[in-house]
Design brief:
- Chains A, B: InterPro entries: ArsR-like_HTH, HTH_ArsR_DNA-bd_dom, HTH_MetalResp_TranReg, WH-like_DNA-bd_sf, WH_DNA-bd_sf.
- Chains A, B: Keywords: DNA-binding, Transcription, Transcription regulation.
- Chains A, B: One of its GO terms (molecular function) is DNA binding.
- Two copies of one chain form a homodimer.
- Chain A is of the alpha+beta class and 108 residues long.
- Chain A has six helices and three strands; from the N terminus they run H-H-E-H-H-E-E-H-H.
- The first copy, chain A, has a domain of 70 residues: Winged helix-like DNA-binding domain superfamily/Winged helix DNA-binding domain (Arc Repressor Mutant, subunit A).
- The first copy, chain A, has a three-stranded antiparallel beta sheet with strand order 1-3-2.
- In chain A, a hairpin with a 2-residue loop joins strand 2 and strand 3.
- In chain A, helix 1 packs antiparallel against helix 4.
- Chain A starts with 17 loop residues before the first helix and ends with a helix.
- Chain B binds a DNA duplex (30 and 30 nucleotides) through helix 4.
Chain lengths: 108, 108
DNA sequence: CTTTTATATCAATTTTTTTTGATATATAAA
DNA sequence: TTTATATATCAAAAAAAATTGATATAAAAG
């Protein structure tokens, strides 16, 4: 993050919002919001179940899960052959309003 | 919004998160986060001043302002030849966490 | 009027993201 | 082992978004 120019009140150079950009990009897609919503219904869901829940071909779902994972909005746990995904509650809470958390994140 | 299938707990068909998608898309860009940040520093800013604040060619700035405007994250007011933009506080508060509002939206 | 200033829009191009189908990998089951 | 299942990754194609420079519009100034 660049130093702030107190004379003009503006930043001397652009500030870096990259980490927010990545998270908002991850949320900026209907399919991925769908996935977040489904993950909000249960503690965790394996990929095989998600494919039917969101009705997507496996490679496509995998692609979108990776984007959410890279943005740290969800987490992955491998159990045997299955990969279980769940919301990263902390991160979601950090950026979304409480109101939105009711949709994409459990209230408690 | 589709009816919910209570048997499986899943939605019969995809739910529609389009309005959220549009807002997150608008936030999913470093330049536009920059603009939001600058708009957070003052009650409102005219385009001519924004061009120097975010250091962008006029047509490019105009393009990004339109995306934020269409997402209803900012508002426009025309005064003479000048167009003044300001944050849409209500909408920003509706979707972003209080913590983020400190960056992109005034605390009060 | 004519000119200047502030801003939006448009069309062409470039860049980024998404989709698709194929293939790779790893675990489990037979 | 061999085979089946779950999932990730890759490369090519398609689609969407961003950039650029030119032009349009509208208000203000001269």
């Amino acid at each position: 993050m660049k130093s702030i120019d107190f004379h003009t009140g503006s930043t001397a150079e652009a500030m870096d919002f990259t980490s927010y950009e990545i998270k908002f990009k991850a949320l900026a897609d209907n399919i991925r919001l769908q996935i977040m919503y489904e993950l909000n219904q249960k503690p965790s869901i394996c990929v095989c179940d998600l494919t039917t829940l969101v009705n997507l071909p496996q490679s496509k779902l995998s692609y979108h899960l990776k984007i959410l994972l890279d943005a740290e909005l969800i987490e992955k746990e491998k159990i045997g052959t299955w990969n279980y995904y769940r919301l990263n509650k902390k991160e979601v809470k950090n950026i979304l309003s409480e109101e939105l958390c009711c949709i994409f994140y459990p209230s408690s």
